[in-house]
Amino acid sequence: MGVLRDVATIIAQHGINWRDAVRSLSVKTQFGKYEVKRPLGSGASGTVYCALDTFAGKEVALKVFESGVLKEEQTRRQFRNEAALAGRLSHPHIVEIYEAVLQEDSGYVAMEYVPGGNLLNVTRPDALLPVDDVIQLGFKSCSALDYAFRQGIIHRDIKPANILVTQGTNIKLADFGSALLKSTGTLPQLIVGTPSYMSPEQLRGGALTLHSDMYAMGVVLYELLIGRRPFAAATMDELFDKIENVVPTAPRTVRPEVPQRLDEIVLKMMSKQPEERYPTWAELALELAQVGKLSVYQRDIADSEKFGILRKSGLFGQLNDAQLWEMVHTSQWRRLPPRSPILREDDAGHSMFILGAGQVKVTKRGRLLNLLKAGECFGEMAYIQGAAATRYASVEAMTDVLIAEFDPAGMARLSDGCRLQIAHGMLLTLVERLDLANARISQSA
């Protein structure tokens, strides 16, 4: 399977230092601008290494295909798939593919390096995540898969090993080598993927839609909840028969703290017929968000709740899903009781805020200027003015409130497209408030 893979195997078996092994065998460690640092893992189609992008000075994950492997048609198809996606997928929960290069003696794909491992580590009965965390992982995966589907992509190999962890419940969907790309004419009748996560229609070689990935995601959630897959079998034929004909045991029967509604969602995702699953990823994500709210109220605010609030706000209404996730990861959230002061006039400050829930009043020198409800922003004038700004008015909670704070340093790290859309939303907000002020002045004249 290639000298590099042999070296990686020897290192794993004997604990030899990676650089010593490379030097002793004179193994190639430079691929274009990428310098191989250490092996991360290997699979049927190649070996993945942590490598240094010597131009950009950052670490990447480098999948190397050996020449012998690339002679196989399925591996060449996988390589072409990943090459076609280079620079095409831009989503906070999808691994970015930087470039794919086919050389005379080998090929390689450079992609985003995610250091936190994958979800395989939490699929054992003795290492299960809290149910709330599983819900958040499912919600974010739905967002990534919905984005991919709208780009014309069906993943076809959703499994815990292909969902990487950045931190906490933040994940990155990886390995699109088996994806069905509408634009490339990849043959849908080819059976590709990992058997335990294949949908019934995938086993039959039928036409694939988003519902095939939805089935596989259901199996992943099932496994994360109880530490085993829904079906086990001694032979492949027996496994395929169970996937096509047997209804899996509900997770709640194995792990009683799983909410009944979550049981229903996971089992619906694994329905035998595609049309019996959720019509869209958005509808599935909404169901997960709603069942998640029941268990996270009075606790940390779930990312799914933040995402839903920002989507409904007037300021961020024009942002796409990927840009909204940027905002989720940039913001700081807190709940406050009634009569809590949020901002005081003449104090220094330049953060901007979104009211996620409840109602606040805006006053200046004790006079009421405005009442704001959920979805509206405040503090935007000081944010626009920058570091030397002072608050124009005071803001106080009238009810229990949930607020999101956005500081300039975090906002500066957003993508250009995201900042442009926010600037447009802020202009619209300022115009609306000027119109309101003019109307009040004219009424009092």
What do these coordinates show?
With 445 residues, the chain is an alpha+beta fold. The strands form five sheets. It has a six-stranded antiparallel beta sheet with strand order 1-2-3-4-6-5, sandwiched between helices. Strands 11-18-13-16 form a four-stranded antiparallel beta sheet. The protein has a four-stranded antiparallel beta sheet with strand order 12-17-14-15, with no helix packed on it. It has three domains: 3-112, Phosphorylase Kinase, domain 1 (2-Layer Sandwich), CATH 3.30.200.20; 119-297, Transferase(Phosphotransferase) domain 1 (Transferase(Phosphotransferase), domain 1, Orthogonal Bundle), CATH 1.10.510; 306-444, Jelly Rolls. The protein is globular. The protein has helices at 3-14, 18-25, 67-70, 73-84, 131-150, 200-203, 210-226, 236-245, 251-254, 260-269, 281-296, 303-312, 321-330, 380-385, 408-412, 416-444; strands at residues 30-31, 34-42, 47-53, 58-66, 97-102, 106-112, 153-154, 163-167, 170-173, 180-181, 332-336, 341-343, 352-357, 359-364, 367-373, 377-378, 394-397, 401-406.
